[in-house]
Amino acid sequence: MTIKGIIWDADGTLLDSMEIWDHAPDHYLETLGIEPEPNLGEILFEMSLEQGAKYLIDRYHLPVGVADVLEGIHCQIETFYRREVTLKPGAKELLAEFKQKGYPMILATSGDQDCIRQACERLEIRQYFTELLFCSEAGAGKDRPDIYLEAARKMNCRPDEALVVEDALHAIETAKKAGFSTAAVYDKANKEQEKIRETADIYLKSFDEQLTEMITGRM
C-alpha cells in the first residue's frame, strides 16, 4: 500500500467536538433561564433540526418561532468552535509529523464552514492542510464519496493512493467502497466501535506515538 496523500475528517476525528451537538439545545435553554430535562439530547437525536426546534417550543413554552430557536442553538455551537473546542490529544503532533514527511493533506468535513475555519485558525492547524473541503460545497454528504474523490483529485492521487481518516462508520464505509484506505479514530460519541474496528484498515484508539509509528509503518 503506497499512500501519497491523507484526507482528514474534522469533528470527532481531529476535533473533540461531538458533545456540543448533543448539548447545544441544553445550553440554549440555559441562556433563557430554563433548566433542560436530563435526557434532552436523546429525545432530539432522531429529529430533524426543525422538528427539534418545534419540540423545544412546545415542551418549554417558548415565545419564539422555529427560526429563532435554530439561530439561538447555532450561536451556542459557533461560540463553542470559536472559543472552546479542543484538538484530540496528539492530533497536532501527528499532523506536524506527516507535514514534515511531505504528505499533502486535505481536511474534508460535513461541518459548518465558519465554525471549522475558526477552529482551525485558533488551534493553529490550518497550516497543515493544502485545502479545506466541505460537503456543503461538494453537494453531497459522506454517504457518497464526492468529497473524498475531490480531495484525492486535488492531491493528484488515485483513491487507492490516499488514506481517509474518519471516526464515523458510514463515512469509513463510503470511503472504502470508493477504493480508499481508511483509518478509524475512536470517539466516544460513536456507539458502533466494534463494527468500525472491523471495517477500517487501521483502528486508532488515540493519537499516541506508538500508533503514529503504526500508521507510517503501514504506508
What does this structure look like?
The chain is of the alpha/beta class. The chain has helices spanning 18-31, 40-44, 49-60, 66-83, 91-100, 113-122, 135-138, 146-154, 169-177, 193-199, 209-218; strands at 5-8, 15-16, 86-87, 105-109, 131-134, 162-166, 181-185, 202-204. The longest helix has 18 residues, at 66-83.
How would the blueprint of this fold be written?
Layout: E1 5-8, E2 15-16, H1 18-31, H2 40-44, H3 49-60, H4 66-83, E3 86-87, H5 91-100, E4 105-109, H6 113-122, E5 131-134, H7 135-138, H8 146-154, E6 162-166, H9 169-177, E7 181-185, H10 193-199, E8 202-204, H11 209-218
Parallel strand pairs: 1-4, 1-6, 4-5, 6-7, 7-8
Antiparallel strand pairs: 2-3
Helix pairs in contact: 1-4, 3-4, 4-6, 9-10
The ordered string of helix (H) and strand (E) elements is EEHHHHEHEHEHHEHEHEH
Provide the residue-averaged pLDDT: 90
Summed up, the helix count is: 11
* Poorly predicted parts: none
Q: Tell me the distance between the termini.
A: 6 Å
**SSE class:** alpha/beta
Shape: elongated
The biggest beta sheet reads: 6 strands, parallel
Summary, kept brief:
By secondary structure, the chain is α/β, with parallel strands linked by helices.
